[in-house]
Amino acid sequence: MGLEIERRFLVSGDGWRSLAGPPQQLRQGYLASSADGITVRMRLRSDGQAWLTLKAAADPTGIARHEFEYPIPTADAEALWQLAPHRLEKTRYALDLGGGDWIVDCFSGSNQPLVLAEVELTNPDAVLDLPEWCGEELTGESRWANAVLAYQPVQSWTPEERQRFGLA
Predict the structure, then answer these.
(1) Which of 93, 123, 151, 163 is the most exposed place for a label (fewest CB within 10 A)?
(2) Which residues are catalytic?
(3) Separation CA 10–CA 8 (nearest Å)
């Protein structure tokens, strides 16, 4: 059983860009989700690689999740994309930064201008030196989960909510 240990942050500014690798375009379609955090999604990367993933909460803080991920044929991913009732698109950048496996996701479409950073850790208690461009920590806050953003994108939030997070 896979276990993903991850912290998430709202990104402030462009300081991360000097650490970024090449962009990867991602499409994610959410096929099923539940109120207790179980999701089934397909992910299709612009290079044609695709995966089917099931995620479920592993602890009450939201920092650790069970993750089962399986490669699938591109044609299957395209068919699942068409079937997915909730979708999102984003550009992902892997970062050359210590302390864990860092990525930055720049969302497009109805989640634009949202930019989130995630760091995968080896254990939930890992000490982390946060870069200056990491803003508010969002770990465990369900409204920032990709599955929720696919269903309730930031452009559907009230102007006050968007402004509070610098997304207006």
Answers:
(1) 123
(2) 30
(3) 7
